[in-house]
Amino acid sequence: MELLSSALALDNGLALTPPMGWLTWERFRCIIDCKKYPQECISESLIKRTTDIMEKEGYLAAGYNYVGIDDCWLEEKRDANKRMVADRQRFPSGIKALADYIHGKGLKFGMYQDYGTKTCAGYPGVLGYEEIDVKTFAEWEVDYIKLDGCNVDASKYDTGYPAFGKLLNETGRPILYSCSWPAYQNNPDYTSIAKHCNLWRNYQDIDDSWTSVKNIMQWYAKNQDELVKYAGPGHWNDPDMLIIGNFGLSLDQARVQMAVWSILAAPLLMSVDLATIRPEFKEVLLNEDVIAVDQDPLGKQGLRVWTGSGCEIWNRELADGSYAIAFVNLREDGAPFTLQASFDDMKIPKQIYKVKDLYNDEKTTFCDIKGKFETRINPTGVRFYKFTPLCL
């Protein structure tokens, strides 16, 4: 097992690009009645089924390598030794056996806990049991911990989250650390958060709706000048899960979320039933060109650089000198909208570019240095391009 220094969570060598994987919460919430809902309840059966699909159907190969259980996996009480216990009916084989299964398929295992006395759903939290819980996670060979922030005095976040991260490092096991710390504060200390966490939730939970996706986009745009200072290899802003393939987004809207999340250098954490996802949504999630933008090694979070006519332009600089540019149409009228954008609008240097449409795989050359780039965007949709400079 790779050994780590016991200094800071950020020193764990993990998340050099934004983490990718699958989490239970947005799609499966706290469904625990396995008699009524056997295909949807939070259980080892759901996790194994998802693991198998990720291995066999291209998700792991595309980079989605974490499988994570969110809230509602615990028994309501700790055992006689004060240790956490997984629900014995829904996880009959135990967590260590489940971790072994996931690792055997070539994936990594993520789990949820809460810094408070109880989790957000009311199960035992870590407060007062931090050392024994971290020891238990390491013994179970967990690779990723999401630590929520319900049911605790907010004054404890600034010391408690770093202390928990230090305990994770002291196990000697590389455990990616996802913090919900700033999502519960009005004025987060991002310098400290970026120092102690691999990723962190900034804003409210995503819901399964276009309205929710838009709200998160607008919040990130409004706060982008502050947020971008702290994102980079090993430490990322997290706008929450991908809801692609569920009930609330059209195909165009799904492409918007995937494009903007990749511009934001966001973790790509699916929360969808992979057993029933429709092929067109699966194609969005497995788009290798868009994933490559998200995973770009420069690790520079992009920005919204223009708004007007009910549209937005988002730009991200990439390691090879290219630019990923998303033209988002927020209009809901009945026809695609034609947008003409200047170099200044797109915030790119005036020169000749090779342009690739990342969703349609169409290639063209943009060489009208005095003119404007024109694209036509579906209502609540996106056109997503990579602009690669060509020598003049």
TrEMBL record:
Signal peptide: none annotated. Its EC number is 3.2.1.-. The keyword Cell inner membrane does not apply. One of its GO terms (biological process) is oligosaccharide metabolic process. CDD domains: GH27 (cd14792). Its main location: other. It is found in: Lysosome. Residues 299-381 form the Alpha galactosidase A C-terminal domain. Keywords: Disulfide bond, Glycoprotein, Glycosidase, Hydrolase, Lipid metabolism, Lysosome. GO terms for molecular function: alpha-galactosidase activity. One of its GO terms (cellular component) is membrane. InterPro entries: Aldolase_TIM, GH, Glyco_hydro_27, Glyco_hydro_27/36_CS, Glyco_hydro_b, Melibiase/NAGA_C. Belongs to the glycosyl hydrolase 27 family. Homodimer. This is Alpha-galactosidase. It comes from Parnassius mnemosyne (clouded apollo).
